[in-house]
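Run log, item B.
One chain of 403 residues. Sequence copied directly from the ordering sheet:
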Amino acid sequence: MDGTIQRKKAAPDIRNWKPQTRAVRAGQVRSNFDETSEALFLTSGYAYNSAEEAEATFKGESTHFQYSRFGNPTVSMFENRLAALEGAEACRATSTGMAAVFYSLLALLKTGDRIVAARQLFGSCHYIINELLPKYGIRGEFVDGGDLAQWEKALSTPANAVLFESPSNPMLDIVDIQAVCDLAHKAGATVVLDNAFATPMLQRPLEFGADVVVHSATKYIDGQGRTLGGAILGSRAFIIDKLQPIIRNTGPALSPFNAWVLVKGMETLGLRIDRHCANARKVADALATHPKIGRVLYPGRPDHPQHQLAAKQMSNFGGVVTFDIRGGKHATFDALNRLKLVDISNNLGDAKSMVTHPATTTHMRIGAEERAKLGIGDGTVRISVGLEDADDIVGDLVQALGS
Protein backbone atom coordinates (compact mmCIF):
# COMPACT_ATOMS: atom_id res chain seq x y z
CA MET A 1 0.00 0.00 0.00
CA ASP A 2 1.24 3.52 -0.78
CA GLY A 3 -0.67 5.25 1.99
CA THR A 4 -3.22 6.82 -0.36
CA ILE A 5 -6.63 7.28 1.23
CA GLN A 6 -9.20 5.02 -0.49
CA ARG A 7 -12.61 6.59 -0.99
CA LYS A 8 -15.70 4.59 -1.86
CA LYS A 9 -17.82 5.84 -4.73
CA ALA A 10 -21.19 7.26 -3.84
CA ALA A 11 -24.09 4.89 -4.46
CA PRO A 12 -25.43 5.48 -7.99
CA ASP A 13 -28.89 6.85 -8.66
CA ILE A 14 -30.38 4.30 -11.05
CA ARG A 15 -33.71 6.07 -11.60
CA ASN A 16 -32.63 7.54 -14.93
CA TRP A 17 -30.72 4.50 -16.17
CA LYS A 18 -31.95 2.81 -19.35
CA PRO A 19 -32.96 -0.87 -19.15
CA GLN A 20 -29.72 -2.22 -20.59
CA THR A 21 -27.68 -0.23 -18.08
CA ARG A 22 -29.83 -1.59 -15.26
CA ALA A 23 -29.35 -5.11 -16.62
CA VAL A 24 -25.58 -4.70 -16.29
CA ARG A 25 -25.22 -2.56 -13.18
CA ALA A 26 -28.32 -2.56 -10.97
CA GLY A 27 -28.13 -4.29 -7.60
CA GLN A 28 -24.38 -4.80 -7.68
CA VAL A 29 -22.72 -5.00 -4.26
CA ARG A 30 -18.95 -5.35 -4.00
CA SER A 31 -17.13 -7.00 -1.15
CA ASN A 32 -14.13 -5.43 0.54
CA PHE A 33 -12.01 -6.90 -2.30
CA ASP A 34 -13.66 -4.51 -4.80
CA GLU A 35 -14.14 -7.17 -7.47
CA THR A 36 -15.48 -6.04 -10.86
CA SER A 37 -17.48 -9.21 -11.46
CA GLU A 38 -20.25 -9.98 -9.00
CA ALA A 39 -19.04 -12.23 -6.22
CA LEU A 40 -20.40 -15.74 -5.73
CA PHE A 41 -21.13 -16.36 -2.07
CA LEU A 42 -21.33 -20.13 -1.70
CA THR A 43 -22.28 -20.22 1.95
CA SER A 44 -25.19 -21.69 3.84
CA GLY A 45 -24.73 -19.62 6.99
CA TYR A 46 -23.17 -16.46 8.40
CA ALA A 47 -21.12 -15.56 11.47
CA TYR A 48 -22.02 -12.77 13.85
CA ASN A 49 -19.67 -10.33 15.52
CA SER A 50 -21.50 -10.73 18.81
CA ALA A 51 -24.35 -12.55 20.49
CA GLU A 52 -26.21 -9.23 20.50
CA GLU A 53 -25.91 -9.00 16.70
CA ALA A 54 -27.28 -12.52 16.33
CA GLU A 55 -30.24 -11.64 18.56
CA ALA A 56 -30.92 -8.45 16.60
CA THR A 57 -30.80 -10.37 13.33
CA PHE A 58 -33.33 -12.93 14.50
CA LYS A 59 -35.57 -10.15 15.83
CA GLY A 60 -35.49 -8.42 12.45
CA GLU A 61 -33.67 -5.38 13.83
CA SER A 62 -30.51 -5.98 11.79
CA THR A 63 -29.96 -6.43 8.05
CA HIS A 64 -27.19 -8.94 8.72
CA PHE A 65 -27.63 -12.12 6.65
CA GLN A 66 -28.99 -14.97 8.75
CA TYR A 67 -29.20 -18.14 6.65
CA SER A 68 -29.10 -18.70 2.89
CA ARG A 69 -32.60 -20.15 2.89
CA PHE A 70 -33.67 -16.67 4.00
CA GLY A 71 -31.22 -14.54 2.02
CA ASN A 72 -27.78 -14.53 0.42
CA PRO A 73 -25.67 -11.69 -1.03
CA THR A 74 -25.54 -13.19 -4.52
CA VAL A 75 -29.26 -13.99 -4.52
CA SER A 76 -29.98 -10.45 -3.31
CA MET A 77 -28.03 -9.02 -6.25
CA PHE A 78 -30.20 -11.05 -8.62
CA GLU A 79 -33.39 -9.93 -6.88
CA ASN A 80 -32.42 -6.25 -6.84
CA ARG A 81 -31.29 -6.25 -10.47
CA LEU A 82 -34.48 -7.89 -11.72
CA ALA A 83 -36.59 -5.55 -9.58
CA ALA A 84 -34.83 -2.59 -11.19
CA LEU A 85 -35.58 -3.99 -14.65
CA GLU A 86 -39.26 -4.64 -13.92
CA GLY A 87 -39.77 -1.38 -12.06
CA ALA A 88 -40.83 -3.28 -8.93
CA GLU A 89 -40.33 -2.24 -5.33
CA ALA A 90 -39.11 -5.67 -4.29
CA CYS A 91 -38.36 -9.18 -5.54
CA ARG A 92 -37.89 -12.62 -4.06
CA ALA A 93 -36.14 -15.37 -5.96
CA THR A 94 -37.32 -18.98 -6.06
CA SER A 95 -35.74 -22.25 -7.11
CA THR A 96 -37.84 -22.52 -10.31
CA GLY A 97 -40.38 -20.60 -12.35
CA MET A 98 -43.18 -22.90 -11.26
CA ALA A 99 -42.28 -22.27 -7.63
CA ALA A 100 -42.65 -18.57 -8.40
CA VAL A 101 -46.16 -19.08 -9.80
CA PHE A 102 -47.29 -21.35 -6.97
CA TYR A 103 -45.89 -19.31 -4.10
CA SER A 104 -47.24 -16.04 -5.48
CA LEU A 105 -50.73 -17.60 -5.39
CA LEU A 106 -50.17 -19.25 -2.01
CA ALA A 107 -49.37 -15.82 -0.56
CA LEU A 108 -52.70 -14.47 -1.84
CA LEU A 109 -55.21 -17.29 -1.42
CA LYS A 110 -56.82 -19.28 1.38
CA THR A 111 -59.66 -21.75 1.75
CA GLY A 112 -62.90 -20.30 0.40
CA ASP A 113 -61.18 -17.91 -1.98
CA ARG A 114 -61.67 -17.69 -5.73
CA ILE A 115 -59.17 -17.23 -8.56
CA VAL A 116 -59.95 -16.39 -12.18
CA ALA A 117 -57.33 -17.43 -14.72
CA ALA A 118 -56.83 -17.29 -18.44
CA ARG A 119 -57.28 -20.69 -20.02
CA GLN A 120 -54.13 -20.04 -22.06
CA LEU A 121 -51.60 -21.20 -19.49
CA PHE A 122 -48.55 -23.44 -19.41
CA GLY A 123 -49.57 -27.00 -18.56
CA SER A 124 -48.21 -26.95 -14.99
CA CYS A 125 -49.97 -23.65 -14.26
CA HIS A 126 -53.20 -25.17 -15.54
CA TYR A 127 -52.67 -28.07 -13.11
CA ILE A 128 -52.27 -25.70 -10.16
CA ILE A 129 -55.56 -23.94 -10.91
CA ASN A 130 -57.58 -26.96 -12.00
CA GLU A 131 -56.23 -29.74 -9.76
CA LEU A 132 -54.12 -28.52 -6.86
CA LEU A 133 -55.82 -25.42 -5.45
CA PRO A 134 -59.29 -27.05 -5.31
CA LYS A 135 -57.84 -29.64 -2.90
CA TYR A 136 -57.41 -26.78 -0.44
CA GLY A 137 -60.85 -25.30 -0.98
CA ILE A 138 -59.80 -22.61 -3.46
CA ARG A 139 -62.13 -22.29 -6.44
CA GLY A 140 -60.72 -21.70 -9.90
CA GLU A 141 -62.48 -20.43 -12.99
CA PHE A 142 -61.03 -20.30 -16.50
CA VAL A 143 -61.81 -17.73 -19.19
CA ASP A 144 -60.44 -17.14 -22.67
CA GLY A 145 -57.68 -14.63 -22.05
CA GLY A 146 -58.34 -12.57 -25.16
CA ASP A 147 -62.10 -12.25 -24.58
CA LEU A 148 -62.82 -9.22 -22.40
CA ALA A 149 -66.49 -10.14 -22.21
CA GLN A 150 -65.58 -13.41 -20.48
CA TRP A 151 -63.29 -11.57 -18.08
CA GLU A 152 -66.05 -9.07 -17.32
CA LYS A 153 -68.56 -11.80 -16.61
CA ALA A 154 -66.18 -13.81 -14.42
CA LEU A 155 -65.13 -10.69 -12.50
CA SER A 156 -68.66 -9.38 -12.02
CA THR A 157 -68.57 -11.21 -8.69
CA PRO A 158 -65.81 -10.89 -6.07
CA ALA A 159 -62.51 -12.67 -6.67
CA ASN A 160 -59.25 -12.80 -4.77
CA ALA A 161 -56.69 -13.35 -7.51
CA VAL A 162 -56.29 -13.27 -11.28
CA LEU A 163 -53.58 -15.16 -13.19
CA PHE A 164 -52.57 -14.96 -16.84
CA GLU A 165 -49.65 -15.05 -19.25
CA SER A 166 -49.11 -12.57 -22.06
CA PRO A 167 -47.91 -13.75 -24.52
CA SER A 168 -49.20 -17.18 -23.56
CA ASN A 169 -47.44 -20.52 -23.85
CA PRO A 170 -47.60 -21.96 -26.50
CA MET A 171 -50.23 -20.20 -28.63
CA LEU A 172 -48.94 -16.64 -28.09
CA ASP A 173 -52.31 -15.21 -27.11
CA ILE A 174 -52.16 -11.59 -25.95
CA VAL A 175 -54.20 -10.37 -22.99
CA ASP A 176 -55.24 -6.73 -22.64
CA ILE A 177 -53.31 -6.15 -19.42
CA GLN A 178 -54.75 -2.76 -18.52
CA ALA A 179 -58.36 -3.75 -19.17
CA VAL A 180 -58.14 -7.03 -17.25
CA CYS A 181 -56.34 -5.36 -14.34
CA ASP A 182 -59.07 -2.71 -14.12
CA LEU A 183 -61.78 -5.40 -14.03
CA ALA A 184 -59.83 -7.47 -11.51
CA HIS A 185 -59.29 -4.58 -9.13
CA LYS A 186 -62.98 -3.70 -9.20
CA ALA A 187 -63.67 -7.31 -8.17
CA GLY A 188 -61.15 -7.05 -5.32
CA ALA A 189 -58.58 -9.32 -6.97
CA THR A 190 -54.79 -9.12 -7.04
CA VAL A 191 -53.37 -9.63 -10.54
CA VAL A 192 -50.47 -12.05 -11.06
CA LEU A 193 -48.94 -11.93 -14.54
CA ASP A 194 -46.33 -14.32 -15.96
CA ASN A 195 -43.87 -12.20 -17.95
CA ALA A 196 -41.41 -14.96 -18.89
CA PHE A 197 -42.03 -14.84 -22.66
CA ALA A 198 -41.69 -11.06 -22.98
CA THR A 199 -39.09 -10.39 -20.26
CA PRO A 200 -38.87 -6.91 -18.76
CA MET A 201 -36.92 -5.83 -21.84
CA LEU A 202 -40.10 -6.03 -23.96
CA GLN A 203 -42.93 -5.56 -21.47
CA ARG A 204 -43.31 -4.12 -17.96
CA PRO A 205 -46.71 -5.30 -16.68
CA LEU A 206 -46.64 -3.25 -13.48
CA GLU A 207 -46.96 -0.14 -15.65
CA PHE A 208 -50.27 -1.49 -17.01
CA GLY A 209 -51.74 -2.21 -13.58
CA ALA A 210 -50.50 -5.71 -12.71
CA ASP A 211 -49.81 -6.21 -9.00
CA VAL A 212 -47.42 -9.16 -9.08
CA VAL A 213 -45.08 -10.31 -11.85
CA VAL A 214 -43.60 -13.80 -11.96
CA HIS A 215 -40.74 -15.13 -14.04
CA SER A 216 -39.24 -18.42 -15.02
CA ALA A 217 -35.68 -17.09 -15.02
CA THR A 218 -34.71 -20.47 -16.46
CA LYS A 219 -35.76 -19.13 -19.85
CA TYR A 220 -34.51 -15.85 -21.34
CA ILE A 221 -32.98 -14.39 -18.18
CA ASP A 222 -30.44 -17.23 -18.10
CA GLY A 223 -30.61 -17.49 -21.86
CA GLN A 224 -28.27 -20.44 -22.32
CA GLY A 225 -30.12 -23.36 -20.76
CA ARG A 226 -27.78 -23.67 -17.77
CA THR A 227 -29.80 -23.23 -14.59
CA LEU A 228 -33.26 -23.24 -13.06
CA GLY A 229 -34.64 -20.20 -11.29
CA GLY A 230 -37.72 -18.10 -10.69
CA ALA A 231 -38.73 -14.73 -9.31
CA ILE A 232 -41.74 -12.98 -7.80
CA LEU A 233 -41.93 -9.18 -7.99
CA GLY A 234 -44.35 -6.65 -6.60
CA SER A 235 -44.89 -4.03 -3.93
CA ARG A 236 -42.69 -4.07 -0.85
CA ALA A 237 -45.76 -4.68 1.30
CA PHE A 238 -46.74 -7.78 -0.66
CA ILE A 239 -43.21 -9.19 -0.84
CA ILE A 240 -42.26 -8.55 2.81
CA ASP A 241 -45.57 -9.01 4.61
CA LYS A 242 -47.33 -11.73 2.61
CA LEU A 243 -44.76 -13.63 0.56
CA GLN A 244 -41.57 -13.60 2.61
CA PRO A 245 -42.88 -15.45 5.70
CA ILE A 246 -44.07 -18.33 3.51
CA ILE A 247 -40.85 -18.56 1.51
CA ARG A 248 -38.63 -18.31 4.59
CA ASN A 249 -40.45 -21.13 6.37
CA THR A 250 -41.04 -23.54 3.48
CA GLY A 251 -37.75 -23.19 1.63
CA PRO A 252 -38.09 -22.81 -2.18
CA ALA A 253 -34.73 -21.02 -2.13
CA LEU A 254 -32.66 -20.20 -5.19
CA SER A 255 -29.09 -21.47 -4.88
CA PRO A 256 -26.34 -18.80 -4.83
CA PHE A 257 -24.64 -20.43 -7.81
CA ASN A 258 -27.82 -20.31 -9.91
CA ALA A 259 -28.39 -16.71 -8.83
CA TRP A 260 -24.87 -15.81 -9.97
CA VAL A 261 -25.47 -17.42 -13.37
CA LEU A 262 -28.72 -15.48 -13.71
CA VAL A 263 -27.07 -12.21 -12.69
CA LYS A 264 -24.49 -12.67 -15.41
CA GLY A 265 -27.22 -13.70 -17.85
CA MET A 266 -29.03 -10.42 -17.32
CA GLU A 267 -26.00 -8.49 -18.50
CA THR A 268 -26.61 -9.68 -22.06
CA LEU A 269 -30.41 -9.96 -21.89
CA GLY A 270 -31.11 -6.90 -24.00
CA LEU A 271 -28.62 -7.86 -26.69
CA ARG A 272 -29.95 -11.41 -26.86
CA ILE A 273 -33.61 -10.40 -26.91
CA ASP A 274 -33.01 -8.11 -29.87
CA ARG A 275 -31.51 -11.02 -31.82
CA HIS A 276 -34.21 -13.47 -30.72
CA CYS A 277 -36.91 -11.08 -31.94
CA ALA A 278 -35.22 -10.41 -35.27
CA ASN A 279 -34.66 -14.11 -35.93
CA ALA A 280 -38.20 -15.05 -34.86
CA ARG A 281 -39.68 -12.54 -37.30
CA LYS A 282 -37.64 -14.03 -40.17
CA VAL A 283 -38.67 -17.55 -39.21
CA ALA A 284 -42.35 -16.59 -38.95
CA ASP A 285 -42.32 -14.85 -42.32
CA ALA A 286 -40.60 -17.80 -44.01
CA LEU A 287 -43.00 -20.36 -42.54
CA ALA A 288 -46.06 -18.29 -43.48
CA THR A 289 -45.45 -18.89 -47.19
CA HIS A 290 -44.59 -22.59 -46.97
CA PRO A 291 -47.20 -24.95 -48.48
CA LYS A 292 -46.83 -27.50 -45.64
CA ILE A 293 -47.74 -24.91 -43.02
CA GLY A 294 -51.38 -24.31 -42.18
CA ARG A 295 -51.06 -21.45 -39.69
CA VAL A 296 -48.32 -19.24 -38.22
CA LEU A 297 -48.74 -17.36 -34.95
CA TYR A 298 -46.31 -14.57 -34.13
CA PRO A 299 -47.44 -11.33 -32.42
CA GLY A 300 -45.14 -9.29 -34.64
CA ARG A 301 -46.97 -10.24 -37.83
CA PRO A 302 -49.98 -8.15 -38.91
CA ASP A 303 -52.00 -11.35 -39.39
CA HIS A 304 -51.77 -12.22 -35.69
CA PRO A 305 -55.30 -11.64 -34.36
CA GLN A 306 -54.00 -9.42 -31.54
CA HIS A 307 -51.11 -7.74 -33.32
CA GLN A 308 -52.25 -4.21 -32.51
CA LEU A 309 -52.67 -4.99 -28.82
CA ALA A 310 -49.23 -6.63 -28.73
CA ALA A 311 -47.72 -3.54 -30.35
CA LYS A 312 -49.39 -1.37 -27.69
CA GLN A 313 -48.07 -3.39 -24.74
CA MET A 314 -44.71 -4.65 -26.01
CA SER A 315 -41.68 -2.89 -27.46
CA ASN A 316 -40.93 -5.98 -29.59
CA PHE A 317 -42.56 -9.34 -30.07
CA GLY A 318 -40.38 -12.05 -28.57
CA GLY A 319 -38.48 -15.10 -29.71
CA VAL A 320 -41.23 -17.75 -29.92
CA VAL A 321 -43.18 -18.72 -33.04
CA THR A 322 -46.01 -21.27 -33.10
CA PHE A 323 -47.19 -22.95 -36.27
CA ASP A 324 -49.27 -25.87 -37.56
CA ILE A 325 -47.88 -28.50 -39.91
CA ARG A 326 -50.43 -29.95 -42.30
CA GLY A 327 -51.05 -33.69 -42.05
CA GLY A 328 -51.46 -34.13 -38.30
CA LYS A 329 -49.25 -35.87 -35.79
CA HIS A 330 -47.58 -38.32 -38.18
CA ALA A 331 -46.49 -35.64 -40.64
CA THR A 332 -45.43 -33.37 -37.80
CA PHE A 333 -43.28 -36.02 -36.14
CA ASP A 334 -41.70 -36.86 -39.51
CA ALA A 335 -40.74 -33.22 -39.98
CA LEU A 336 -39.36 -32.83 -36.45
CA ASN A 337 -37.31 -35.98 -36.82
CA ARG A 338 -35.68 -34.59 -39.99
CA LEU A 339 -34.33 -31.50 -38.23
CA LYS A 340 -30.54 -31.32 -38.25
CA LEU A 341 -29.79 -27.99 -36.57
CA VAL A 342 -32.83 -27.26 -34.43
CA ASP A 343 -33.15 -29.40 -31.29
CA ILE A 344 -36.30 -31.14 -30.09
CA SER A 345 -36.70 -29.95 -26.50
CA ASN A 346 -39.48 -28.74 -24.23
CA ASN A 347 -37.26 -25.91 -22.96
CA LEU A 348 -37.19 -22.41 -24.46
CA GLY A 349 -35.30 -19.14 -24.24
CA ASP A 350 -31.99 -20.82 -25.04
CA ALA A 351 -29.29 -19.53 -27.38
CA LYS A 352 -30.01 -22.68 -29.39
CA SER A 353 -33.22 -23.01 -31.41
CA MET A 354 -35.61 -25.62 -29.99
CA VAL A 355 -38.94 -27.07 -31.08
CA THR A 356 -41.54 -28.96 -29.12
CA HIS A 357 -44.85 -30.63 -29.89
CA PRO A 358 -47.15 -29.27 -27.12
CA ALA A 359 -49.89 -31.89 -27.52
CA THR A 360 -47.51 -34.68 -26.53
CA THR A 361 -45.21 -32.75 -24.16
CA THR A 362 -45.93 -29.54 -22.26
CA HIS A 363 -49.74 -29.72 -22.61
CA MET A 364 -50.24 -33.48 -22.81
CA ARG A 365 -51.83 -33.85 -19.36
CA ILE A 366 -54.52 -31.18 -19.73
CA GLY A 367 -56.42 -33.48 -22.10
CA ALA A 368 -57.63 -33.29 -25.69
CA GLU A 369 -60.78 -31.30 -24.88
CA GLU A 370 -58.88 -28.51 -23.15
CA ARG A 371 -56.17 -28.51 -25.83
CA ALA A 372 -58.89 -28.01 -28.43
CA LYS A 373 -60.16 -24.96 -26.53
CA LEU A 374 -56.63 -23.56 -26.63
CA GLY A 375 -56.20 -24.27 -30.33
CA ILE A 376 -53.44 -26.83 -29.79
CA GLY A 377 -53.76 -29.49 -32.47
CA ASP A 378 -51.81 -32.60 -33.44
CA GLY A 379 -49.85 -30.52 -35.94
CA THR A 380 -49.04 -27.63 -33.60
CA VAL A 381 -45.35 -26.90 -33.05
CA ARG A 382 -43.71 -24.26 -30.86
CA ILE A 383 -40.24 -23.07 -31.83
CA SER A 384 -38.06 -21.07 -29.49
CA VAL A 385 -35.93 -19.26 -32.06
CA GLY A 386 -32.31 -19.08 -30.97
CA LEU A 387 -29.29 -16.94 -31.73
CA GLU A 388 -27.98 -18.86 -34.73
CA ASP A 389 -27.95 -17.18 -38.13
CA ALA A 390 -31.61 -16.81 -39.13
CA ASP A 391 -30.92 -18.19 -42.62
CA ASP A 392 -29.58 -21.41 -41.10
CA ILE A 393 -32.62 -21.80 -38.85
CA VAL A 394 -35.00 -21.23 -41.76
CA GLY A 395 -33.00 -23.56 -43.98
CA ASP A 396 -33.22 -26.37 -41.46
CA LEU A 397 -36.96 -25.95 -41.03
CA VAL A 398 -37.56 -25.85 -44.78
CA GLN A 399 -35.54 -29.00 -45.46
CA ALA A 400 -37.34 -30.79 -42.60
CA LEU A 401 -40.74 -29.84 -43.98
CA GLY A 402 -39.85 -30.99 -47.49
CA SER A 403 -41.30 -29.66 -50.71
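Observations after the first pass:
- The chain has 15 helices and twelve strands.
- The chain has two domains: 17-267, 269-401.
Flagged for discussion on Thursday.
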